[in-house]
Amino acid sequence: MATKLEVCRRCGFRMVMHFSALTFRCPACQAVTHLRPPEPRRWPPEQPPPLSVHGRRRAVLCGVSYRNHKKSLAGSVNDVVAMRNLLVKRLGFPYASVVVLTEDERDPRRVPTKRNIRDAMRWLVYGCQPGDSVVFYYSGHGSQIRELTINEVDGHDEALCPLDFETEGKILDDEINETIVRPLPPGAVLHAIIDTCFSGTFLDLSHVCRMNREGYYSWEDHRIPYGPYKGTQGGLALSISACDDHQNSLGTSALTGISTGALTYSFVQIMMREPRLTYGQLLIALRNRVLEVQKAGLSSGNAPKSFSQEPQLSSSEPFKVHSKPVVI
Q1: Which of these is catalytic: 26, 62, 141, 191?
Q2: Of 90, 83, 45, which is closest to residue 61 (Cα–Cα)?
Q3: Which pLDDT value is given to residue 149?
């Protein structure tokens, strides 16, 4: 339930109340305070993104550096810049329909706080229609939290860490699923590219592709009997993540001299060269490329010898990964 903090204008008593309340009676002095009706928050751009011949295309790119924090990240902003270049210059997304959230942004609404990330995710799928293609990208810290309601196969929720997570809290995979997966109508497609630790099931999608080195695969069903529905309204949601739920993701500058996430670097390089791969080809190429990055990190001393990272593909529904082309 959305709440707000209000103050009695007579005695100064503070009271938490429902966001839509227009009046309240102070329990201390019994005075009645009249409140202004809440103003709807707007998210830039105020006008919907322009239409393309394939429907509307929009993206939210979120990179959190955690500057001045003991666990700051050097490559998150670089990752966002690389992803925006890929979407705009190679894949044809209108520049105005790509919303960026980093600590470099001057607009306070585009700093990657918990509130702003939530607003951005709602904007991403607001008014989504058949034919729309939307992208959610995240580079930052991820974590796992013990799950108490038994709706996760591994017993843990995965969580996104906003810039202000220490004071405002994290965003759980349950909320991400509810916000950007469930509203997708028939004919709409969501691609999430998640470059963080513990990210295999970051969107809580129902099927995870388990593929061996030879390319043989099966879909692992993550639906929980009698658990909450975590699918779409008929659209397709896909997630390409940096690693499995029990793994960490690597950031490196070994290959280019610029700090980047291993998944982001690999994904951008592959899609720049060949944007019409099948999902199976993309997953194999990502794993091979990330392995090269790991080896470069090992030789430069940037990665521990026991480090292991294997990109994952999950989906709201199973499909033939070696025949379905990647269309973003």
Answers
A1: 141
A2: 83
A3: 59
- Quickly count helices (H) and strands (E) in the chain: 6, 18
User: Each residue of 285-298: pLDDT tens digit?
Assistant: 999 988 887 777 65
Catalytic residue list contains 156: no
Give the global pTM: 0.80
Average pLDDT over residues 173-185: 94
- For 139, residues 6+ apart whose C-beta sits below 8 A from its C-beta are 62, 63, 64, 73, 75, 76, 79, 80, 195, 196, 261, 264
Cα–chain-centroid distance for residue 118? 10
Q: Which amino acid is at 221?
A: D
Query: 76-107: buried (b, 16+ CB within 10 Å) or exposed (e) per residue?
Result: bbbbbbbbbebbbeebebbeebbbbbbbebee
Q: CA 176, CA 287: separation in Å to the nearest integer?
A: 25
Give how far Cα 6 sits from Cα of 3, 10, 15, 36, 312, Å: 10, 12, 5, 11, 46
Q: Kind of pairing, strands 251-252 and 260-261?
A: antiparallel
**Residue 45, preceding peptide bond in cis (omega within 30° of 0):** yes
Model pLDDT for residues 98-143, shown as the tens digit of each residue? 999 999 999 999 999 999 999 999 999 999 999 999 999 999 998 8
Can you tell me the distance from the alpha carbon of 52 to that of 49, in angstroms, rounded to the nearest whole number? 9
Catalytic member of 8, 197, 209, 243: 197
Print burial letters for 3-39: b (CB count within 10 Å at least 16), e (below 16).
eeebebeeeebebeeeeeeeebebeeeeeebeeeeee
pLDDT bin (cut points 50, 70, 90) of residue 251 is confident
Amino acid sitting at position 223: R
E strand or H helix that includes residue 174: helix 173-176
Active site residue 191: no
